[in-house]
């Protein structure tokens, strides 16, 4: 067989593989959206759920998902930023660093349901916090930390060594070089990673069933005092998220239109995650232009 | 096959007390782990002159240069003395950040920050506590003029430094260094990634800069060394073999290894 022919066959095979991957994705998206979107309405997006049957809208769940996401990110981004900077810049190449790296790897391979059960035993039961937003956020942090740390470390390491030398040669300290020169260059990659992990956190169910709980008590959206039990901002109230709601409607929902409900909620979830992905790209490009002053 | 030369036979000039020196090294050794990369380096650099460090790849000239402003910290072990203004700066207690502000460095590949031209120059100044806007603007203009870049970029100071050509980027790096008002400027093969026209511009810039700064430049290019330097040191396998005024070095090298190198028999 001549080189040209081999090349042609290889190209066709690779094209087919790519096409099938894209095809599967589009089939899934189209299926979920066509099944769910007809049932999505304004009252569905904002309405309250009937606690017994699971019927009704997903307003509270949608809010819970976002609130939990924000809390999770508030906890996990600073920690993983510190860990990522440490691993990329300060960690020496020795047994301790490789121990940290393997620990991160093990943490990232823990099944989310195990993380959820751990959170349940430690926070919900042992610390008596109960099913709550905060328990869920901490469990999700465990689940999120390793991937974020890895992403931040990789983004920082990808910045050329010569940039570091330039900073140091001007008499800047290592920390100042890191913060003012390396971090801005790495920022688009870091932000992309954060937004993508936000999408993952948004869709997570297993880790939340036992930590944030499966009930969405009616909250008073006029009450923004985080200390009030009925306030949506109260981090100690149970908070069923959208992904958990989908699971619950499908397993124990008593509503007559359970199938339509879960299809609609899935469509909303998928759209939110897609928006996160799109947002990650746009934000990454925007930030890169912004920090590097390139138009 | 590389000819064997005796490391005992060297011809390194020294200066009398009347010559004012910018810096000097005494018995400097550099080790990369177990690997002994620089042997007994004794060089002195007269003020306001360009000194060229030449030699084949791996001869230790970059290693030597990077030790002068302690850029080898954490990479290599440097022993011996590095005298700068009567202070041995190769001591653990020395403030290396302060030292690097006085002894600037320009690298082989242009490495401007991924920021605007203006920010490239003022970032480190601001970090060192210079906040007055007028003074910063003044420094921008002075340093860009010093690096012969001002006319090309004065209308685009907010443009990304990465949009400049390679030669412009390298001159920006020089401007960035001299904006710190150093008194010694170390250049590590600053023209090796540039085209001939940009090279000429950088060389003209350096010739102009030696009036204010002491310049030590590592170069691969012997023509460049003869064009711009007043003193020239020849490195071979981690040893400084010969150090002499550039004219003497190129017209009348003292020892066989320099003679062969300059004649082009190796390297």
UniProtKB/TrEMBL annotation, chain A:
Q: Name one GO molecular function term.
A: phosphate transmembrane transporter activity
| Compartment(s) where it occurs, according to its Swiss-Prot or TrEMBL record | Cell membrane
**Classification via Pfam families:** BPD_transp_1 (PF00528)
Where mainly located?
Answer: membrane
Q: Which residues form the ABC transmembrane type-1 domain?
A: 62-280
Topology relative to the lipid bilayer, per the entry, is: Multi-pass membrane protein
Which spans of this chain does the record mark as coiled coil?
Answer: none
Membrane-spanning ranges: 12-33, 66-87, 99-123, 129-148, 179-198, 258-280
Q: Which InterPro entries match?
A: MetI-like, MetI-like_sf, Phosphate_PstA
Q: Which UniProt keywords apply?
A: Cell membrane, Membrane, Transmembrane, Transmembrane helix, Transport
Sorted alphabetically, the Gene Ontology cellular component annotations on this record are: plasma membrane
PROSITE patterns recorded = ABC_TM1 (PS50928)
Q: Which GO terms describe its biological process?
A: phosphate ion transmembrane transport
Q: Which family does it belong to?
A: Belongs to the binding-protein-dependent transport system permease family. CysTW subfamily.
Protein's name in the database: Phosphate transport system permease protein PstA
UniProtKB/TrEMBL annotation, chain B:
**One GO-annotated biological process of the protein:** phosphate ion transmembrane transport
**Domain ABC transporter: residue ranges:** 23-262
- Tell me the GO molecular function terms: ATP binding; ATP hydrolysis activity; phosphate transmembrane transporter activity
Domain of life of the source: Bacteria
Record's GO cellular component, any one?
membrane
Q: Which UniProt keywords apply?
A: ATP-binding, Cell membrane, Membrane, Nucleotide-binding, Phosphate transport, Translocase, Transport
The record's section on NCBIfam families has: 3a0107s01c2
The protein's name in its UniProt record: ABC-type phosphate transport system, ATPase component
The beginning of the lineage is: Bacteria, Bacillati, Bacillota, Bacilli, Lactobacillales
